[in-house]
């Protein structure tokens, strides 16, 4: 397919049919913030250029107005009252907020090319009616003025979090919803996942001079506006200016008591750490930079380069939450926990900040892949002995496999394809997105081998960096990398709750030196089989039984593993002829390393 790409990957197709053409929207924000720390409110003047790179004519626009979620009887509040297992951080707290504690956006006006536009505020979505349509491949100037109030800290953003950080400024501005090949994604905010348009931000924050401000992007002030020169008395507001290029969100935080440590990497990129030094946990924060430097080398080698000039670890929020070029994490933690959350949130710079999936639709592609990467990075740090009590684990995902199998067999799971907001319980969402999501990579390792998957993850990064990959895009890269067909796996894994269950019987002697082994597929989810035989002399023999639907076998299985004939997916039975007599065999097992979500492991093993 021939494509001609312009700003923000607007792509025209010169040869292929329109359906084959990838495109994505672009946006540029210049946001002036005048912050009143007495009232916890701020006035915003927001200028934007929206690039409609789609083939469609747009008659309306939608903005996220996230802070409106923090009001009694908002969708987020009602959801928290009606879901079986509310997030404890939210619970019934929103219902109890007073008018000075809620969050809101009060819109003065929205203009396009200097003409005021009509709009409706529909909870956390602002529905804007354009007076003139936006044609395909054209741009529109927009301007918004509004007043916002940051609520007391409930979830992610807010003021005065439990660790005393004054302002955690996430989801704080009117953010244009994304419009992609599926149309608008104007999802009401109920406290879960995000999706945004690739763009550039310039944010000017006028604030009480006692505050230190941390943010997405690179600070571009001239003069002495920095955390080191903050004033001890109130006075004329200082203006902080941050610019971020090629990101899809912007976060900031402010506190008078932040200590800021800047750590320079060998290539000139910087890591910044903002925390409240008076706590005893400051000692852990002092150890963090060198550990993150070591971790980054491993992360870049396995998942691709981190391409931004800086990254900030900011104490704030209510746990850990990822944003472009920065994270908000709670900071009163042991070193082990602080490193774990820092690695997890930073890994989100790959899985969703550079590989910008629609998290609402594919939470497993960001939370899951991030959790996988976190686990193997932590394992690497364990090998380096950098953290007391952190032990190397030869099979770091076995616990997740067991946890998932317990959940799906006892409670019942929902397919990964359920929209993140619409899972019936927080638990079902959490286990699908994080646990089953991370196992996606493990299952692929089982099907394709570790090396192929490792290559595939890098290919995925280079093919989809700064774009919006979906589930199929990911599996296509894995197919192209391995030359193995994976559509069957994608369909069972993502769109169903079918279960994997294979069993083996007792080997039967036929001739003196041969045993016949009967295998059975009991579950409806077909998989290839890794089979291990240990003989009387403790010699290990590995076999791989491909599934017919794979069509090819990954190169990883060409060496130590004997590849047997393919198992047709329709057939529940399969026979293996082993070059041993029964009495020479000490043990036979299916999936010996506990990689698949086989729901009954007792029938996976035979011993005399
Ligand atoms: Zn995460």
What is the CA-atom radius of gyration, in angstroms? 27 Å
- Counting DSSP H or I runs of 4 or more residues, the number of helices is 10
Mean pLDDT: 95
Second-tier CATH architecture of the largest domain: Sandwich
N-C termini distance? 58 Å
Kindly provide the name of the CATH class of the largest domain.
Mainly Beta
Strand content: 25-35%
Largest sheet: 8 strands, mixed
Please name the defining characteristics of this protein.
single chain, Immunoglobulin-like, disordered N terminus, binds zinc ion, Neutral Protease, domain 2, alpha+beta
List the helices and strands and how they pair.
Elements lengths: L2 E4 L3 E4 L12 E11 L4 E12 L5 E7 L10 H8 L21 E9 L2 E2 L1 E5 L2 E10 L3 E12 L8 E2 L7 E3 L5 E2 L2 E2 L2 E2 L13 E10 L4 E4 L2 E2 L18 E10 L4 E4 L2 E7 L5 E7 L5 H22 L6 E6 L4 E4 L2 E4 L5 H13 L1 H6 L8 H21 L14 H13 L15 H23 L1 H15 L6 H12 L4 H9 L6 E3 L3 E2 L5 E7 L7 E7 L4 E6 L15 E3 L9 E6 L6 E6 L14 E2 L2
Parallel strand pairs: 3-16, 22-23, 23-25, 30-31
Antiparallel strand pairs: 1-2, 3-4, 4-10, 5-9, 5-13, 6-7, 6-10, 8-9, 11-12, 12-20, 14-15, 16-19, 17-20, 18-19, 21-22, 24-25, 26-28, 27-28, 28-32, 29-30, 29-33, 33-34
Helix pairs in contact: 2-3, 2-5, 3-5, 5-7, 6-7, 7-8, 8-9
The structure holds zinc ion.
């Amino acid at each position: 397919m021939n494509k001609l790409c312009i700003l923000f990957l607007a792509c025209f197709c010169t040869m292929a049919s329109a359906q084959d053409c990838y495109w994505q929207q672009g946006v540029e924000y210049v946001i002036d913030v005048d912050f009143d720390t007495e009232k916890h409110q701020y006035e915003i003047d927001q200028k934007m250029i929206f690039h409609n790179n789609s083939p469609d004519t747009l008659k309306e626009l939608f903005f996220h107005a996230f802070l409106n979620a923090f009001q009694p009887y908002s969708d987020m509040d009602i959801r928290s009252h009606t879901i079986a297992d509310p997030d404890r951080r939210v619970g019934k707290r929103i219902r109890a907020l007073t008018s000075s504690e809620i969050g809101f956006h009060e819109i003065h006006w929205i203009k396009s090319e200097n003409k005021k536009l009509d709009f409706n505020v529909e909870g956390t979505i602002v529905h804007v009616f354009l007076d003139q349509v936006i044609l395909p491949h054209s741009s529109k100037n927009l301007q918004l003025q509004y007043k916002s109030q940051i609520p007391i800290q409930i979830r992610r953003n807010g003021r005065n979090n439990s660790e005393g950080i004054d302002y955690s400024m996430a989801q704080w501005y009117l953010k244009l919803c994304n419009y992609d090949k599926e149309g608008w994604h104007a999802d009401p905010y109920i406290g879960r996942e995000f999706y945004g348009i690739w763009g550039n931000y310039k944010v000017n924050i006028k604030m009480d001079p006692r505050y230190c401000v941390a943010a997405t992007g690179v600070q571009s002030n001239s003069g002495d506006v920095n955390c080191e020169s903050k004033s001890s008395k109130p006075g004329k507001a200082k203006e902080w200016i941050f610019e971020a290029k090629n990101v899809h969100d912007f976060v900031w935080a402010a506190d008078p008591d932040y200590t800021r440590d800047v750590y320079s990497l060998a290539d000139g990129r910087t890591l910044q750490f903002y925390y409240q030094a008076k706590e005893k946990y400051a000692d852990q924060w002092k150890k963090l930079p060198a550990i993150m430097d070591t971790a980054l080398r491993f992360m870049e080698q396995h998942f691709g380069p981190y391409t931004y000039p800086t990254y900030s670890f900011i104490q704030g929020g209510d746990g850990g939450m990822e944003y472009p070029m920065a994270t908000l994490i709670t900071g009163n933690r042991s070193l082990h926990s602080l490193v774990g959350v820092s690695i997890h949130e930073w890994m989100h710079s790959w899985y969703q900040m550079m590989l910008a999936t629609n998290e609402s639709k594919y939470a497993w592609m960001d939370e899951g892949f991030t959790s996988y990467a976190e686990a193997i990075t932590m394992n690497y740090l364990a090998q380096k002995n950098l953290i007391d009590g952190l032990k190397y684990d030869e099979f770091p995902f076995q616990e997740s496999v067991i946890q998932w199998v317990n959940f799906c067999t006892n409670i019942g799971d929902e397919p990964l394809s359920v929209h993140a907001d619409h899972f019936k319980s927080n638990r079902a969402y959490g286990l699908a997105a994080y646990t089953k999501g991370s196992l996606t990579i493990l299952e692929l390792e089982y099907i394709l081998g570790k090396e192929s998957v490792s290559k595939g993850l890098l290919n995925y990064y280079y093919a989809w960096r700064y774009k919006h990959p979906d589930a199929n895009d990911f599996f296509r890269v894995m197919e192209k990398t391995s030359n193995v067909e994976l559509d069957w796996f994608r369909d069972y894994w993502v769109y169903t709750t079918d279960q994997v269950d294979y069993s083996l019987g007792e080997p039967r002697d036929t001739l003196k030196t041969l045993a016949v082994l009967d295998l059975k597929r009991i579950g409806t989810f077909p998989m290839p089989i890794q089979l291990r035989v240990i003989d009387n002399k403790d010699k290990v023999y590995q076999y791989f039984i491909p599934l017919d639907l794979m069509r090819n076998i990954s190169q990883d299985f060409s060496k130590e593993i004997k590849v047997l004939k393919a198992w047709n997916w329709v057939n529940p039975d399969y026979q293996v002829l082993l070059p041993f007599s029964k009495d020479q065999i000490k043990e036979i097992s299916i999936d010996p390393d506990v990689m698949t979500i086989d729901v009954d492991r007792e029938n996976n093993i035979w011993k005399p």
